[in-house]
């Protein structure tokens, strides 16, 4: 339903609260006049853009989370959880109430109750407002992006992750790979495997913390940890009797086409990392909107970084550079290069299509501890 439809179903009390919020001049006892005045006010593009620009960080995150949540309706507890997720530590410590965000959005006519007996206690954002919010935010974010010329050299990994999945499965098939009590491959086996892959990574050292980005993230480097978790989740491999073995499904995968593999790896990554980065789909979408041309990574983070919340010892910049941009490169969504103005990023054609699809993707969190 669009804004006009929801205003029609709203009671006169809510209409007056919205009209008061925007200081509309109309008769408070005329529902028709209230609706027309609100529609006229919000129909003004400059006024609407001004309302969005004036949002503080928490409101921006709350709006962003609502826009990319695939659910059509939200219960009050769900809204409170989204609002709490939108507030940073400082805002929470100052006593800011998540309900305040919800109240502001209902007063502004951006959140409405449902119109049927089943949805009267649920909330939703008007569909036409969602589109307008995305357009305004996209214009605002792109305005702050620093564009560059194409670098003399750049890196792009195409579909190499799908190729390396098969190389990993073939390595498991051809070697007897011992694992420890926790299911981790020993370092010698890891090193041998890295020499077989198209994209090699340094092994994980003992120093530092590693958790929150998958079952095997603590033991393996980032890209391979994603490949391992993907293979384990789809039961291409199994850990049994202190050995890593290829399953029948894994043998079938060795002979399968790669056509859809990168898409499946992309979807899996979104689900796997969503526990640590709840609004990951929106970050990928905004990166796609802002990096259609070669752009500096610094300006991308300046514009998109405010949507990212810290995750334990990972600050927003680490999350964007290491957990998002780096993995988007591995998944073939972007190419990266060096320029006089610093590191640069550009979406690939395939990556732009995937990023655009994030508007409607439903990505449930994959538990970190998978069932054996």
Q: What are the key terms here?
A:
372 residues; alpha+beta; 4-stranded antiparallel β-sheet; 3-stranded antiparallel β-sheet; 18 helices; elongated
Short précis:
This protein is α+β, with helices and mostly antiparallel strands. It is built from 18 helices and 9 strands. The strands form 3 sheets. It has a 4-stranded antiparallel sheet.
Order of helices and strands: HHHHHHHHEEHEHEHHEEHHHEHHEEH
Unreliable stretches covering 5 or more consecutive residues? 368-372
Strand-pairing-aware structural class? alpha+beta
User: Helical stretch count?
Assistant: 18
> Which descriptor suits the 3D outline?
elongated
Mean pLDDT: 92
Q: What share of the residues lie within helices? A: 40-55%
Quote the beta fraction.
Answer: 5-15%
Radius of gyration, in Å, reads 24 Å
Terminal residue distance: 44 Å
Spatial arrangement of strands, main beta sheet: 3-8-9-7
The number of distinct β-strands equals 9
Q: Sketch the major β-sheet.
A: 4 strands, antiparallel
């Amino acid at each position: 339903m669009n804004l006009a439809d929801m205003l029609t179903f709203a009671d006169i009390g809510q209409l007056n609260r919205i009209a008061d919020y925007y200081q509309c001049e109309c008769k408070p006892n005329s529902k028709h006049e209230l609706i027309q005045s609100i529609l006229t006010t919000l129909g003004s593009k400059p006024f609407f853009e001004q309302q969005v620009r004036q949002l503080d960080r928490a409101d921006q995150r709350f709006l962003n989370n609502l826009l990319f949540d695939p659910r059509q309706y939200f219960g009050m507890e769900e809204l409170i959880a989204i609002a709490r997720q939108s507030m940073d530590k400082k805002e929470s410590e100052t006593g800011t109430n998540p309900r305040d965000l919800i109240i502001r959005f209902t007063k502004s006519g951006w959140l409405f109750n449902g119109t049927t007996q089943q949805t009267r206690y649920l909330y939703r954002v008007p569909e036409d407002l969602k589109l307008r919010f995305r357009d305004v935010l996209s214009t605002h974010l792109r305005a702050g992006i620093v564009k560059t010329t194409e670098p003399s050299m750049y890196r792009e990994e195409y579909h190499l992750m799908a190729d390396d999945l098969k190389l990993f499965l073939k390595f498991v098939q051809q070697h007897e790979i011992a694992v420890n009590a926790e299911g981790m491959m020993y370092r010698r086996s890891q090193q041998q495997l890295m020499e077989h892959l198209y994209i090699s990574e340094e092994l994980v050292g003992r120093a530092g913390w590693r958790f929150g980005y998958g079952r095997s993230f603590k033991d393996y480097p980032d890209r391979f940890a994603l490949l391992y978790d993907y293979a384990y989740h789809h039961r291409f491999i199994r850990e049994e009797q202190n050995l890593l073995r290829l399953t029948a499904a894994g043998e079938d995968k060795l002979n399968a086409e790669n056509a859809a593999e990168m898409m499946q790896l992309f979807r899996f990554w979104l689900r796997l990392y969503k526990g640590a980065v709840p609004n990951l789909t929106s970050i990928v979408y905004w990166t796609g909107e802002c990096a259609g041309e070669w752009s500096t990574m610094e300006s991308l983070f300046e514009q998109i970084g405010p949507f990212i919340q810290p995750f334990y010892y990972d600050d927003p910049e680490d999350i964007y550079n290491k957990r998002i941009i780096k993995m988007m490169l591995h998944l073939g969504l972007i190419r990266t290069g060096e320029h006089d103005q610093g590191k640069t990023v550009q979406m690939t054609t395939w990556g732009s299509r995937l990023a655009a699809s994030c508007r409607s993707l439903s990505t449930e969190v994959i538990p970190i501890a998978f069932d054996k």
